Amino acid sequence: MKAVVLLSGGIDSSTTLALALRQGFNACALSVDYGQRHRQELEAAKRIARSLGASLHRIVSLDLRAFGASALTADLPVPKGRDAALMSSEIPSTYVPARNTILLSLALAWAEVLESGDVFIGANAVDYSGYPDCRPEYLEQFERLANLATKAGVEKRVCYRIHAPLLRSTKAEIIRIGTEAGVDFSLTRSCYDPSPQGLACGACDACILRRRGFEGAGIPDPTRYA
Q1: Digit-coded pLDDT (tens) for 60-70
Q2: What residues pair up with 28 in beta bridges, in sequence order?
Q3: Who's near 84: CB < 8 A, 6+ residues apart?
Q4: For residues 148 and 39, what is the distance between their CA atoms, to the nearest angstrom?
Q5: Where would I find the H helices in 23-83?
Q6: How far is Cα 208 from Cα 93, in angstroms, rounded to an integer?
Q7: Residue 158: which residues within 8 A CB-CB, separation 6 or more?
Q8: What CATH number does the domain containing 88 carry?
Q9: Total domains in the fold of the chain
Q10: Which domain covers residue 115, as residue numbers?
Q11: pLDDT digits (tens, 9 = 90+) for 7-64
Q12: Residue 223 — φ and ψ, nearest 5°?
């Protein structure tokens, strides 16, 4: 059974790939170079795909800097030092307009070509930065869309399923799950604003959630911080 797994190179997507492989899927990893300032995550995705044994790994280029409006795709400051309450109460400037919709659409297109009905995404609705496209109701509606908007779905040759196995897990739980599934987290990258040398800033939302996750899991954090 083939499945398309969205792979950013971070903790959640890497663990999701490991879980898809554990479930017996022939996992085809898909990463997207969308002009993100933290493009170092794409090199991490390559390392993870090789390490875990994805059968294929594609990197698609789609430059969302043409639209901007995000701290990840435009010359805007990355928020630093936000506390947990603030992360869960407002959508930060690192939100990329419609990003998960775009990524899932690309994954769906490849899945249709591969004649696969399974798409995996590392979306998380517990420890995250308030992004609207990480919520369960969004993923449920995208799954409905997938079956309405594709030739394979309309012809009933494929019933598309959007798998988000980590949707209701905390970051600490994800790190424990990933460790048990064989993920080498030293290969992953999370920082939104890394140094040119690849050091994590330690203060953006992604770094804070990552560090807190390792502390909660009781597992040493292999991240190299500035």
Answers
A1: 999 999 999 99
A2: 4, 56
A3: none
A4: 33
A5: 40-52
A6: 16
A7: 112, 115, 116, 117, 150, 152
A8: 3.40.50.620
A9: 1
A10: 2-189
A11: 999 999 999 999 999 999 999 999 999 999 999 999 999 999 999 999 999 999 999 9
A12: -65, 140
